[in-house]
Specification:
Layout (H helix, E strand, L loop, with lengths): L1 H6 L1 H14 L9 H16 L6 E2 L2 E2 L6 H13 L4 H25 L4 H13 L1 H9 L3 H20 L5 H18 L2 H17 L9 H15 L1 H9 L1 H17 L19 H7 L2 H7 L3 H19 L13 H18 L6 H31 L5 H23 L3 H26 L11 H8 L3 E3 L5 H7 L4 E2 L11 E7 L3 H6 L6 E9 L11 E8 L1
Parallel strand pairs: 3-4, 3-5
Antiparallel strand pairs: 1-2, 5-7, 6-7
Helix pairs in contact: 2-5, 2-6, 2-20, 3-4, 3-22, 4-5, 5-6, 5-7, 5-8, 6-17, 8-9, 8-10, 9-11, 10-16, 12-13, 14-17, 15-16, 16-17, 18-19, 18-20, 19-20
């Protein structure tokens, strides 16, 4: 079975992504970042705002439009605006990231087996697949940069000019810029260039001057085209938003320099192998791919250092570091596969047992956890929970069996299968136990508006989740009710603005509360996701 997987690595990788992400792509609840992006996509299609992008009718220039264009294209192709359709391109970007992790590994002279291991670690690293729900547009920029790096390596290795490759590098770097601005250039490309130059040197640089000029020209002309267009089309809003974004980098969500230095934890099930893989003196002696290991080690380290220099820090900003980290971790796994049976030092064996044993223990304990979860959630999907528990328990037993027999290759694939199974069997169960009985959808509001023949406004800015579910633009009055000309109209008031609204209701207005909407999907009540609907009359 393993030999079949390794003979068709890219197809096998696709199967992994299908079962991990695509099958239940519509089940995770929509996040605030997704809602913002999907609103912008909807207004592209409905309002024809393909270049001057908007969110709820207002300029939204914080994010370049390429991922939104791709998502809009997905809805047009599938003739659907379901969450599955909207999330499909992002999930495929995870696959593309894995594919080019594999191809880049081959280009730095790694074996096919190690390259496939690297690809599997990449797509199963926690924040690489989790980012598709939390901040879905980020994966586009990093995937496009990774494609560019693949062709860039071929230029550096070539003894003759590769003009086509120079054009491709420029095009994909432009796609990266049109996805997330310069973020991936800073977090992925620059660390790659520094580490590659230190390790392999730039052998084909002189003979590829012209292709690299193509790269620079295309990446700048295409990549900056949208920014230039917006700068001249709407200079005031563009300047205001640009200043706010730059100010955020320096003053918003600031963290100390060392904040990112637990970055390896973001790899999830690979946390301990990833940490061991960063012990350079140890791995450099063990692996036969010494130069390639030095390269991925430097790439990872330099990426973390550069990101640490930016005052604004968030956990999800570490996602690009997980790409070189996955390649770096592969060297340790590959060493264990070939040498674990001959290791004599007990501490080396203990680390392996702990690293994979933790995953197995989670699976062994899950049936007990399931019992207590169902005690507190009697309406949960018991059948889905039992299936999940049986699968994880069985795989855990398998991991321990292979550990006992020192078959690390089988341990590795069993661990990958554990991750796939958790994401394949887990969502139907988790969705069933995190239901909020007080949940009410704002989608019902359109019927109320039709019955009352009124227009609805918002007292202040609404959370994007409400606007997305509502299905259209809701004009924000910014607390200025006198901007409305109708004698009677609907008004949405945030839970957090309720006191302000009642205290500052202008004279001559009567307010009648009709209903409330609660978009908290689980029982934890976030006031940001609770709104109240009033009918106001003069």
């Amino acid at each position: 079975m393993i030999s079949i997987l390794e003979k068709k690595p890219l197809f096998s990788l696709l199967i992994v992504v299908i079962f991990m992400l695509l099958v239940h792509l519509d089940l995770p609840n929509i996040t605030i970042m997704e809602a913002r992006n999907f609103i912008t996509m909807r207004e592209m299609v409905q309002e024809n705002h393909w270049l001057s992008t908007t969110m709820n009718g207002q300029p939204r220039y914080e994010k370049p439009p390429l991922p939104t264009w791709i998502t809009a294209l997905s809805t047009i192709i599938f003739q659907s605006k379901s969450l599955w359709t909207l999330r499909f391109p992002t999930a495929m970007m995870v696959y593309i990231t894995g594919v080019f992790a594999y191809l880049i590994s081959l280009k730095i002279n790694l074996s096919k087996q190690l390259s496939f291991i690297n690809a599997l670690i990449t797509v199963t690293s926690f924040y690489i697949f989790a980012i598709t729900n939390e901040a879905p547009w980020d994966i586009y920029a990093h995937a496009f940069t990774l494609i560019a790096i693949y062709y860039l390596i071929q230029i550096f290795q070539s003894k003759s000019p590769l003009i086509k490759h120079g054009i491709l590098v420029g095009f994909f770097l432009a796609c990266s810029i049109l996805s997330k601005g310069p973020v991936s250039i800073f977090a992925v490309l620059i660390p790659f260039l520094i580490s590659y130059g230190i390790t392999f040197k730039f052998g084909g640089l002189k003979k590829n001057t012209i292709p690299l000029l193509f790269t620079l020209s295309i990446s700048l002309v295409i990549g900056l085209s949208w920014f230039v267009y917006i700068r001249f089309e709407n200079p005031l809003d563009f300047s205001s938003i640009a200043k706010e974004e730059i100010n955020n980098w320096a003053h918003y969500n600031t963290r100390p320099f060392y904040y990112y230095w637990s970055f390896f934890i973001q790899s999830g099930i690979w946390t301990l192998p990833a940490l061991i893989g960063l012990f350079y003196p140890y791995i450099a002696k063990k692996t036969r791919f010494k130069q390639a290991y030095k390269f991925t080690f430097l790439w990872t380290l330099i990426a973390v250092i550069l990101l640490s220099c930016i005052p604004e820090k968030k956990s999800r900003y570490l996602m690009p570091v997980l790409i070189p980290l996955a390649l770096n971790t592969g060297f340790y796994i590959h060493y264990l596969i070939g040498n674990f049976k001959s290791i004599d030092r007990s501490w080396e064996k203990t680390i392996v047992y702990i690293g994979f044993g933790i995953v197995a223990v989670i699976g062994l304990l899950f049936p007990i956890a399931l019992y207590y979860i169902l005690q507190g959630n009697p309406d949960g999907n018991i059948a889905a929970g039992i299936v999940l528990a049986l699968i994880l328990f069985s795989l855990s037993v398998l991991i321990f069996y292979y550990l006992k027999n020192k078959q690390v290759l089988h341990v590795f694939y069993s661990t990958v299968l554990f991750m796939i199974s958790a994401l394949f069997f887990g969502p139907p169960f988790s969705v069933s136990i995190y239901k909020n009985p007080q949940f009410t959808s704002i989608s019902e509001l359109t019927k109320l508006e039709e019955n009352l023949a009124i227009t609805t406004y918002s007292y202040f800015e609404l959370s994007p989740e409400f606007i997305w579910t509502y299905g259209d633009i809701i004009k924000d009055l910014d607390r200025k009710l006198n901007r409305v000309t109708e004698n009677e109209f609907g008004l949405i008031v945030n839970e957090e603005d309720l006191s302000d609204f009642k205290e500052n209701l202008p004279k001559g207005y009567k307010a009648k509360k009709i209903t409330s909407y609660n978009h908290n999907f689980n029982t934890k009540q976030n006031p940001r996701l609770i709104i109240h609907y009033f009918i106001l009359s003069k």
